[in-house]
Amino acid sequence: MKNIKLIFIDLDGTTIDSIKNGKKRISLKNRKLVDEARQKGIKVVVSTGRKPDGHTKVLLKDIGSESDFLAWNGSYVVQNGIVIKNESINSDLVKKIIKLVEKTNLSFIINSDIKNNCFTNNKFLKFILSFSKIKAKKYSEFIFEKPISKMMIWDFSPRKIKKFYENIKNEFSNDLEIVFTGKRNNMIEITSKNCTKGDSEILFCSNLGIKPEECAHIGDTENDMSGNKLGVLISMKNGSKRFKKTADVISKYNYKNAGLGKTIKKYILKCK
């Protein structure tokens, strides 16, 4: 792939390939391969569904993207250390979604913060989460205090989630971005309209005077599909079936053992 000047990289299922002291990390081998791209003048920027604080900061430092990154699927964007986008979901829409979640007995997570903002009335799920020292709260404990940049809706049943997805997609698609994610497509991610990775990546590269067609996005699941607004969209080998159908290229490497770095080297650097 010639003329790629900027690569956006997902974290989970794409870049993270190591564990240190029980925490997800990015291997030294992966970091070195990413640095090879930077040494050739290609900018590499994290574009994740994760929240912008907590352990995400450690991962951003690992990969050298602390001052330039997209979080919450593009709802929150930092460029050169400055927040250039910070969008939240309309409060009335949040309340409507939560009412529908309660009716169908699903679970929801606010702002990707599963430890402090996971809500469910499912006793079995609460029991499972307790093993990870996560204390899920009841629906009735939800208090609208801070802006909500991203909602995640989850259930053990992909069929149940699919039905809910279809219902809210029909009702809210003009006001919200709604995508499937998760290994089994049993999770829905919701952000404000035009808060997708692809939309925010175009904002990011335009500020640098780089054309969208001169950028690439590498990911593994459906919240990466909006990366098709760029020049090239690459799926890791472990990518979801639906995401692979959207991707321009499917890597021969999965995320393990520096798969991201190997993907960059094979499909971008060797083609320059």
UniProtKB/TrEMBL annotation:
Keywords associated with the record: Hydrolase
Descriptive protein name: COF family HAD hydrolase protein
GO cellular component, one term: cytosol
Keyword Translocase in annotation: no
Source organism of this protein record: Mycoplasmopsis maculosa
A Pfam match: Hydrolase_3
Enzyme class label: hydrolase
PANTHER family: HAD SUPERFAMILY HYDROLASE-LIKE, TYPE 3 (PTHR10000:SF8), PHOSPHOSERINE PHOSPHATASE (PTHR10000)
UniProt-recorded Gene Ontology molecular function terms: magnesium ion binding; phosphatase activity
Gene: yidA_2
Listed EC numbers: 3.1.3.-
Essential cofactor(s): Mg(2+)
InterPro entries in UniProt: HAD-like_sf (IPR036412), HAD-SF_hydro_IIB (IPR006379), HAD_sf (IPR023214)
Domain of life, per lineage: Bacteria
